Recover the amino acids of this structure.
């Protein structure tokens, strides 16, 4: 573990423009640097780097963060690996913190499982080429599948001898413990009177499963006998290092090609992956012995948002593709489908027609999910009007999962054309489905929040667990509308938090009175004014992410500290870090031409008077919006009350709220009706 003081030294030494310029061509523009965003295709630079604040922000796709976040996103580093990269770049020695005994035991167990898995992979690979049974049985099988030695070695394929405990005995003799072998899943232990150990994968060709960094997590073993009682494939059980729902077969071999081509082919089986790589489609992966999961999709999303499904053309393959489409769209992916003819899969098609033909087939036969799914549903429905109506409803639900407004409009148009249903009808149905999805998501988030609040506080022994954090506010038009529906004060709250992040440590002058009642002017920190004013009126933020930042700011002030830009930009929580970077980044700077050429004085956003007015108006605007919210809530209660006493109380509250609202309006120089 990297100690916090070392992390801070790394962050203090880091010059973000130097880090990013290793990967992106930057040109100075005023105090900042600009370049083309590396996270989406663009011709006009919208990627801004601010050395003074240590942040980057793309005003095209919205990606934002500090140097660590950039490396994690661009180079697919973990957080510690990104810090180590920066430490190496700036010559900072990392002395990692000594772990507690519990942490040491957990780390030792994980390391042991990694080591025994890597030992097993090397042993099985060695048997494949250097053992008579390995060559005659295992290697012969791979040759029969037309795999070359290069591709066999690339994927680390191997063979486990068809003996009860040959591998287990070899591993024990090499110093690995019985417990490690059992926990890794390589060995099965049975206690039937006399304890017995035997190999899980005996008599099988071995497909090692690597994580994205190339470490062996587990195995999939294929039986080569015709024994009917034997499972065709046996997979490693979940362990401390292996969770099949979080892993993709081939991700280590495919990740660079996926990122380079901005496309991932997703197939069903291990052999399909290997065959595609041998055919030149190296950006291919498969789920590991399980149906596609959201965790696997998020792993793909680290490298691309574009996925082409290459599933078998038989009914199970079509069913799997339809299920995968909705999962992928839910995670914000762009989906196409390459469906092979009946009785063919990627592997068999490649064998029949060769590498060039399958590459051409994959490009020319990739159709968007609307064309694929409508053709399947309409074929199933035939001329039955009820089933056709159900098919339309099913398509509406799927299109509603598309997050991009322009893409969704195009899919609506295409669906309307194919299914012969009015475009307006589908559009209205999609809009209703989107609102229902948003409502369900919000209700679920509230349920989870309520459940978390009911949980007892962890004891010192249990340690502090980090709760799941809300996502940063949406930036799309639809996302903003959703936030306005559930967080009516969203704009005013966001403005207030932006003031804290951008100007919290700045001072402004405010009129006051001395002990004798004379007018004086005093300097106050913006943070003290904002926090003090909102606490005095017990103002709470509707958006939980904004409330969290406000609470953290308040806690820092109460401890006599004043957070600067770097506090939230370098926050350990990625959601907070991204939001802070996004709020701190400025899309525009004031040109010197206004003063130098046109002799027009344009006040800077950092001018003390501008900030003072901004703070004054922003606090009042937030209070005004909160009063509007309270008035609306009271009026809603009036509609549902039948008790005269309650009615009088509510009417009195509304009158008080409106009086305060009038006073705020006068201070803002507004006409309040």
């Amino acid at each position: 573990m990297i100690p916090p003081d070392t992390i801070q030294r790394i962050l203090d030494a880091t010059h973000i423009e130097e880090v990013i310029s290793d990967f992106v061509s930057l040109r100075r523009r005023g105090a900042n640097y600009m370049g083309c965003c590396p996270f989406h295709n663009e011709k006009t630079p919208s990627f801004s780097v601010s050395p003074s604040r240590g942040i980057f922000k793309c005003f095209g796709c919205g990606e934002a963060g500090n140097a660590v976040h950039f490396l994690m996103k661009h180079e697919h580093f973990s957080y510690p690996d990104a810090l180590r990269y920066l430490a190496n770049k700036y010559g900072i020695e990392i002395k990692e913190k000594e772990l507690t005994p519990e942490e040491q035991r957990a780390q030792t167990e994980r390391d042991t499982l990694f080591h025994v898995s890597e030992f097993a992979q090397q042993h099985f690979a060695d048997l494949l080429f250097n053992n008579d049974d390995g060559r005659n049985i295992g290697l012969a099988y791979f040759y029969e599948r037309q795999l070359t030695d290069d591709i066999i070695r690339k994927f680390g394929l191997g063979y486990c001898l068809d003996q009860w405990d040959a591998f287990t005995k070899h591993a024990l003799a090499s110093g690995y413990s019985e417990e490690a072998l059992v926990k890794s899943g390589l060995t099965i232990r049975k206690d039937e009177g006399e304890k017995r150990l035997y190999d899980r994968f005996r008599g099988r060709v071995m497909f090692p499963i690597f994580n994205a960094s190339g470490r062996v997590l587990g195995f999939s073993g294929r039986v080569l006998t015709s024994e009917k009682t034997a499972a065709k494939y046996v997979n490693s059980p979940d362990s401390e290092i292996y969770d099949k729902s979080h892993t993709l077969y081939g991700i280590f071999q495919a990740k660079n090609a996926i990122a380079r081509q901005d496309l991932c082919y997703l197939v069903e089986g291990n052999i399909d992956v290997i065959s595609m790589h041998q055919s030149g489609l190296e950006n291919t992966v498969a789920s590991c012995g399980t149906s596609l999961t959201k965790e696997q999709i998020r792993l793909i999303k680290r490298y691309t948002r574009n996925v082409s499904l290459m599933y078998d053309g038989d009914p199970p393959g079509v069913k799997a593709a339809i299920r995968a489409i909705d999962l992928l769209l839910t995670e914000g992916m762009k989906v196409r489908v390459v469906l092979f003819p009946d009785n063919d899969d990627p592997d068999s098609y490649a064998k029949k027609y060769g590498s060039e033909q399958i590459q051409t087939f994959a490009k020319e036969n990739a159709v968007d999910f609307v064309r694929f799914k409508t053709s399947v549903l309409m074929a199933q429905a035939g001329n039955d009007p009820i089933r056709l109506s159900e098919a339309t409803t099913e398509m509406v639900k799927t299109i509603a999962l598309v997050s991009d407004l322009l893409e969704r409009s195009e899919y609506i148009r295409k669906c309307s054309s194919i299914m012969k249903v009015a475009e307006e009808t589908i559009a209205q149905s999609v809009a209703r489905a989107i609102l229902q999805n948003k409502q369900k998501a919000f209700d679920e988030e509230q349920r989870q929040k309520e459940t978390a609040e009911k949980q007892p506080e962890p004891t010192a022994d249990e340690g502090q667990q980090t709760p799941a954090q809300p996502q940063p506010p949406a930036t799309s038009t639809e996302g903003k509308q959703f936030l306005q529906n559930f967080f009516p004060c969203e704009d005013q709250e966001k403005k207030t938090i932006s003031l804290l992040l951008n100007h919290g440590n700045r001072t402004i002058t405010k009129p006051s009175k001395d002990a004798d009642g004379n007018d004086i002017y005093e300097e106050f920190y913006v943070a003290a004014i904002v926090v003090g004013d909102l606490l005095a009126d017990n103002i709470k933020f509707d958006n939980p992410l904004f409330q969290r930042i406000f609470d953290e700011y308040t806690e820092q002030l109460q401890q006599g500290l004043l957070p600067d830009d770097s506090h939230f930009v370098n926050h350990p929580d990625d959601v907070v870090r991204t939001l802070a970077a996004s709020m701190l980044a400025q899309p525009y700077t004031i040109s010197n031409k206004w003063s130098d050429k046109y002799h027009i004085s344009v006040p800077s956003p950092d001018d003390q008077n501008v900030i003072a007015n901004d703070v004054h108006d922003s606090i009042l605007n937030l209070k005004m919006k909160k009063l509007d919210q309270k008035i609306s809530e009271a009026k809603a209660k009036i509609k549902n009350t039948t008790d005269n006493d309650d009615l009088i109380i509510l009417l009195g509250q509304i009158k008080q709220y409106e009086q305060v609202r009038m006073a705020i309006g006068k201070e803002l120089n507004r006409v309040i009706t």
Notes: The longest strand covers residues 216-223. The radius of gyration is 31 Å. Residues 457-483 have pLDDT under 50 and may be disordered.
